[in-house]
Amino acid sequence: xxxxxPLPLMTVFAILGFALLLVAGRWQWERYEQxxxxxxxxxxxxxxxxxxxxxxxxxxxxxxxxxxxxQGWRVFAPVQEGETVVFVDTDFIPSIEPxxxxxxxxxASLRLxxxxxxxxxxxxxxxPLTLPPRPLQRLWFAVDLPAMGRNAGLENxxxxxxxxxxxxxxxxAIANPFALAPGADxxxxxxxxxxxxxxxxxxxxLLVIYFxxxxxxxxxAFQRPRPRTD
Length: 230
Hints:
Blueprint: E1 2-4, H1 8-38, E2 45-48, E3 52-53, E4 59-64, E5 71-81, E6 84-93, H2 108-111, E7 116-121, E8 139-140, H3 145-151, E9 157-164, E10 166-167, E11 173-174, H4 189-216, E12 220-222
Parallel strand pairs: 4-8, 6-9
Antiparallel strand pairs: 1-12, 2-7, 3-5, 4-5, 5-6, 7-9, 10-11
């Protein structure tokens, strides 16, 4: 026989906390499943060979590299291909401080008109908690191609961008660390799995503390049923 007299206020807060932990754990688990599936999808590639650089339209997008975990600013350079404007993610500036647009030159490879090959990526809409952009400084915290195009005074902006190879310090081309499948990002699936297990673990700990406290103050007890005397 169990005798349980819950504390009202503590019970309310415990229920709310338990629900929030479950929601957080579920969200992280869903992100784990999405990214695990996205990692198996091939990344489509494309090449553009005939284009005109738009040197006044460079925009900068904050990002964290998937290979080095380094923060910095991705250089999105627009080019005119026929009647369409295509942004090319062509460089990375490793710095927490934002770059000065007047000091960043248009990528030399695009100025020379060399063919551009890279992953063709249609970005997802900015997340709800994404920091607001700073258009006057050409700074963005998520890839928002229509807004980036409007900020540069451009029309007919494509709904995708090309994640081209970067150029390393030795002058050699290196794979673009942001050329990820749709739905993926720099945070690996295993990290989301770890977060999900953490939230679920905290929910279990909350239950243990809740019932242990009630037992310690005599509000939760296990009693043997009294024998019948009739």
